[in-house]
Design a protein that fits this description.
Layout lengths: L2 H9 L12 H14 L5 H5 L1 H11 L13 H14 L11 H11 L1
Helix pairs in contact: 2-4, 5-6
Length: 109
């Protein structure tokens, strides 16, 4: 049994040696959230991209916009490419609900 296999078997499925560093964009956004909300960014979140993403998701301000549930431009463009290649129509409700658009994309890839 190799060292990696032994280590994984003893300590569970840990990939600590594969931690990805936080991106500059993540750090800027997290600092803006922290400044606006008078919060501190945990040290662990500053070292690990996944932890930072979770911290941002937990603390980002909610978008009260009436268009917050609409699909993104990238999502619509991707769906339109799929629709053209498969010669299918995208249901109109998909243009008003990002979750419906996501489901349509997943079922028509």
């Amino acid at each position: 049994m190799s060292y990696a296999t032994q280590n994984s078997a003893l300590n569970g499925p840990s990939n600590d040696y594969h931690l990805l560093p936080v991106t500059d964009r993540q750090m800027r956004y997290a600092r803006a959230i922290a400044l606006q909300s008078a919060l501190e960014i945990p040290v662990e979140a500053q070292r690990d991209r996944r932890a930072m993403s979770q911290w941002i998701s937990a603390h980002k301000p909610h978008d009260p916009s009436p268009f917050a549930n609409y699909p993104t431009g990238k999502q619509v463009a991707y769906a339109e490419r799929i629709a053209r290649s498969k010669r299918r129509q995208i249901p109109q409700e998909c243009f008003r609900d990002k979750h419906a658009m996501s489901l349509w994309i997943d079922h028509n890839k």
